[in-house]
Design brief:
The model has no long low-confidence stretch (mean pLDDT about 95). The longest helix is centred in the last third of the chain and has 25 residues, at about 340-365. The protein has helices at about 45-55, 60, 100-105, 120-130, 145-150, 205-210, 225-230, 285-290, 290-300, 340-365, 385-395, 405-415; strands at about 5-10, 15-20, 25-35, 65-70, 75-80, 140, 155-160, 190, 195-200, 215-220, 220, 240-245, 245-255, 265-270, 270-280, 370-375, 395-400. The relative contact order is 0.15. Strand 2 and strand 3 (about 25-35) form a beta hairpin. It is an alpha/beta fold.
């Protein structure tokens, strides 16, 4: 058997999925939940999660795995030394400390470029260059790059999905000349097409975990693109909304759309473009107020055909990225009714409204007309929310064929996702 393993590192934990060579069957699914949000910032926990996931896969399947790929959260980045050890704490996808370098970056990057966001990988790198520990750093890596390095042992390799917000030109497939003006003194990653084999497993890793020594580790992707690959969406105008901790929109388009003023960027996907953005609203806000059992029971009491009059902008902290790109945008969560059903209705309605505004903005900016929305992430199972969203979006809203980003990453490893 030629099995493929996809590993997904999200904000709430890590997951692994083993699929057969026809991608017809999921043969194993393993999970490593992070105990708290602080764990998501710790490379030590990432490393532990990676190897615990592999150990959880049945031994007889491990021997048959021929390819592995990993996805990570977009713009979660870290600096490492010459042997790959982190020199400081990573910066997570939503860390906006890069806002302090945006003025400098604007003087060099093209107007409205993807990197001109407080949370872009490049803004984070420029901020990190000011750290006392920066002198120890040799490589700048994304989360997925570093995790793959633990398996194949080669430092400084990324993919063009992760490298987009570092400034990599995904049309010309090279770093742009203006990047040199920033005088970055460390090694930027070599960038490969997602799914490209990088190297075989390190022999000591293969032997320790009972994996085949000729198992290939492939260039990875981001978590939201992995969810898109898993979804079944293929046509221009089809989109995937990931309702996880955050809200991520991806619309397949014949036209590339980029505008940092609105947090909009496009990933290359074969001959098409996956245009979209990510908002800090989403499931994490819901889980601040309700446990999962409450979300399920209270949702059942909501009449999805009637719009809530509550107008929220649900955020856990100040700042959003898309469709409003404003690091100072305040959360709006009042007035809060005494009835929890009404409060939840207002939250679900408001997140659906932000989703609809996002897709409307993408189309105004030139993306293909929205024809269908697939849904991935934990929120996909909430039928009340689905009905509310369909009312706002005015198109069919369906569950993704597969909802797990780990499945899309396994497709990438086996070559099915190489249109990426």
């Amino acid at each position: 058997m030629n099995l493929s393993l996809g590993i997904d590192f999200g904000t709430s934990g890590a997951r692994g999925m083993v699929i057969d060579e026809e991608a017809s069957y999921i043969l194993a699914e393993v999970r490593y939940p992070f105990q708290d949000s602080a764990a998501a910032v710790t490379p030590k926990i990432w490393q532990e999660a990676l190897f615990v996931l592999v150990e959880q896969i049945p031994e007889e399947l491990r021997r048959e795995i021929k390819a592995i790929a990993i996805n990570g959260t977009s713009s979660t980045v870290l600096l490492v030394d010459a042997v790959g050890n982190p020199t400081d704490a990573p910066l997570l996808y939503n860390d906006a400390r890069g806002s302090s370098v945006l003025e400098h970056l604007r003087s060099i990057a093209p107007p409205n470029h993807t990197v001109l966001s407080a949370t872009s990988s490049l803004a984070k790198l420029l901020w990190m260059m000011q750290l006392p520990s920066f002198s120890e750093a040799k490589y700048f890596l994304h989360q997925a790059d570093w995790l793959a390095f633990l398996l194949h042992g080669q430092l400084g390799i990324s993919d063009y999905h992760n490298a987009l917000k570092l400034g990599y030109d995904v049309e010309e497939l090279k770093y742009p000349e203006w990047l040199e003006l920033l005088e970055i003194p460390i090694q930027l990653p070599k960038v490969l097409t997602p799914g490209t084999p990088i190297a075989e497993l390190r022999s000591e890793i293969a032997d320790k975990f009972g994996l085949s020594r000729d198992c290939l580790v492939c260039a990875g992707t981001t978590d939201s693109i992995a969810a898109f690959l898993a979804s079944g969406a293929k046509l221009p105008g089809e989109a995937v909304t990931s309702l996880g901790s955050t809200l991520v929109l991806k619309l397949l388009s014949r036209t590339r759309v980029e505008d940092a003023r609105y947090g909009i960027y496009s990933h290359r996907l074969g001959d098409l473009w996956l245009t979209g953005g990510a908002s800090n609203t989403g499931g994490a806000v819901l889980q601040k107020f309700f446990i999962n059992a409450e979300l399920e029971s209270l949702s059942g009491e909501i009449d999805a055909s009637i719009a809530s009059e509550l107008d929220y902008y649900p955020l856990l902290r100040v700042g959003d990225r898309f469709p409003i790109n404003d690091p100072n945008l305040p959360p709006r969560l009042s007035p809060r009714p005494d009835n929890p059903v009404e409060f939840l209705h207002g939250l679900l309605e408001s997140i659906a409204r932000i989703e609809a505004q996002g897709y409307e903005l993408l189309q105004i900016m030139g993306a293909d007309k929205l024809i269908r929305v697939y849904t991935a992430g934990g929120g996909a199972a909430n039928h009340t929310w689905t009905a509310i969203r369909a009312r706002h979006l005015q198109v069919a809203v369906v569950a993704s064929v597969y909802t797990e980003a780990a499945y899309g990453t396994a497709l990438l490893a086996m070559g099915e996702g190489k249109r990426g």
